[in-house]
Amino acid sequence: MPDLGSHGTFAGRKAMRAGAAAGYGDRVEEIDRKILLLLANNGRMSFTDLARQTGLSVSATHQRVRRLERRGLIRGYAAVIDPADAGLPLTAFVSVKPFDPAAADDAPERLAHLSAIEACHSVAGEENYILKVRVASPAALENLLSEIRASANVSTRTTIVLSTPYENRPPDL
Questions:
Q1: Residue 11 and residue 20: Cα distance in Å, rounded?
Q2: Could you tell me the residue ranges of all domains in the chain?
Q3: Interhelix angle for 58-71 vs 47-54, to 10°?
Q4: Count H helices, E strands: the chain?
Q5: Percent of the chain, pLDDT > 90?
Q6: Which three-class secondary structure state does DSSP give residue 38?
Q7: Residue 105 predicted with pLDDT over 80
Q8: pLDDT of residue 26
């Protein structure tokens, strides 16, 4: 396993957030953090309720939310869908590694057309990327793995999720 330094540990991340190198924390006022946390937990919260929770006027709350949107801290609002109820009960993490390490690092572009890939993360370690995928069945996963291998010219290593105690938690602001 590669050495991630102290930032790979809980204490390291906490120190990073608290330290001068954190950057993000230095640019977000405490009231904006509260707005972000409230909206992360309920993206449909009204400006009136946000104002009540933050102690600001509705107008000031509206201005702050719009500024957070313009700055890119709020990238959008979306419905959270239950994948199993939507017919995609199988979640897996697929690690990908190019067959030729000297080849262009273009796997994300080559895989972007595959809608079963929910997320693509560039990672340190043996693999180059880890994909989060959701499919209807083991047979659908097998087909998807074949498509991934053929589209990106990569080898894969797959971990199937048995259960998910939690996900999509708001960040620790």
A1: 15
A2: 5-71, 90-160
A3: 100
A4: 7, 4
A5: 77
A6: helix
A7: yes
A8: 56
Burial of 125 (C-beta count, 10 Å sphere; 0-12/13-18/19+) = exposed
Amino acid at 75: R
The token duo for 107 is: 């796997």
Phi and psi angles of residue 126, each rounded to the nearest 5 degrees, phi first: -65, -40
- Has domain 90-160 been given CATH number 3.40.50.720? no
Backbone angles phi, psi at 32, to 5 degrees: -70, -35
In this structure, are residues 94 and 148 in contact, taking their beta carbons and an 8 Å threshold?
Answer: yes
56-86 pLDDT, tens digit per residue, is: 999 999 999 999 999 999 999 999 899 999 9
**Neighbouring-strand partners of residue 160:** 92
Main-chain phi, psi angles of 156, to 5 degrees: -130, 155
With a CB cutoff of 8 Å and minimum separation 6, the contacts of 131 are 93, 94, 95, 96, 111, 117, 119, 120, 121, 148
Segment 8-52, tens digit of pLDDT: 433 433 333 343 344 544 578 999 999 999 999 999 999 999 999
Q: How many residues does the chain have?
A: 173
Q: What's the pLDDT at 172?
A: 86
Sign of CA dihedral 14, 19, 21, 24: positive
CATH of region 5-71: 1.10.10.10
CA 151 distance to own-chain centroid: 23
